[in-house]
Specification:
The protein is an all-beta fold and 81 residues long. The protein is built from no helices and 6 strands. Strands 1, 2, 3, 4, 5 and 6 form a 6-stranded antiparallel beta sheet that branches. Strand 4 and strand 5 form a beta hairpin. The mean pLDDT is 94.
């Protein structure tokens, strides 16, 4: 969930949500506690969010680019802890 998308150069708060990553061996999941979306050029958005990991006290950070210049939109980034 996020606030309304901003004009180019502006940002919006990410206010919550859920995430999950599935591999052959296990699933890691949790909630999104906060973050920011920055409108780079009207089609690309810089996304940064804090991901709380279920079942523990750990959290991770996702940083990436959401690209609406293609269909379907794509997101590319990395998760760090």
């Amino acid at each position: 969930m996020h606030d309304p998308l901003p004009d180019v150069g502006g940002n919006a708060d990410i206010t919550g949500g859920r995430w999950s990553i599935r591999t052959l061996r296990r699933t890691v999941e949790g909630t999104i506690s906060s973050g920011t979306i920055v409108n780079v050029n009207g089609l690309q958005f810089l996304v940064t969010m804090t991901m709380e990991i279920s079942g523990g006290t750990d959290e991770a950070t996702f940083t990436g680019v959401l690209d609406h210049s293609q269909s379907p939109p794509a997101i590319l980034g990395q998760i760090t802890q």
